[in-house]
Amino acid sequence: MTSEKQGLLPTDPPPSYEISSHTLSAPPRSPSGPPKKIFPLHLPALDSLRTRRLILASTSPRRSQILSLLGLPTFEIIPPHFPEDLSKTTLSPFEYVLQTATQKALDVYRREINNHEKGEPGLIIAADTIVVSSMGEIMEKPRSEAEHVRMLKTLRDTGMHKVHTAVAVMTPLESARDPGYALETAVEETGVLFDREVTDELLVAYVRTREGADKAGGYGLQGLGSVLVERIEGAADNVVGLPLRAVVRLVEKVVRKGDDEDVLEGEEELALGNGEEEE
Fold this sequence. Notes:
Blueprint: H1 3-6, H2 17-20, H3 44-47, E1 54-56, H4 61-68, E2 76-77, H5 93-112, E3 123-132, E4 138-139, H6 145-157, E5 161-172, E6 181-194, H7 200-209, E7 229-233, H8 236-240, H9 244-258, H10 267-273
Parallel strand pairs: 1-2, 1-3
Antiparallel strand pairs: 3-4, 3-5, 5-6, 6-7
Helix pairs in contact: 6-7
């Protein structure tokens, strides 16, 4: 390594990545003056959840902030125990992120469905976000400073990358028929292009802030990481970690399925196919 490149790297011991991934950034200061009053989003599916137990299966502060925009009174934060060790070689990025989000939701559901103290959950929302380079490499959270720098250099040097966020929403069925729950999923994709004129010095300086240490791909679009980005194609909240439009759509679908006094989707066609004609 040349002396010039060595000069770009920090010489003092940085904060550990384990600590950084559990440290929340200070919230932005509010502008002067009284805050503007925002009324809740009143939709039948959302209104039905206001008296039920709502769980976000994620410790991400960004996902909590985005979900809070729906105006639901409260929701619990219960981290999933799923190890997130699915194969990145046998699964496509779409399959990988979708299966991970689904397993996170199922993990929390299995642990909480028989919670006699708090009652069964009314709704569980889980999500997983990955960054996929233009070369097809799946990038999650960096595990070291060296990996963090490598990630950002790869994203800068290889053109537009994709951010995939999978969302899984589930609720217990009123009838408790097998499998006992309704589950809906979706995967959103956003393209992100780094500015190719971003210098190595800026990348290393950003890495040292540790803002991106707990984020897929190693950067935060909603914060200082925006200085690395030239443009995006798609939803910004998807890059942050929770595409709200997809969440609302999935909540509406799963709440409708959860109230399954009538025949569930697909069962009517099955019944008719077996000769059970309606009179």
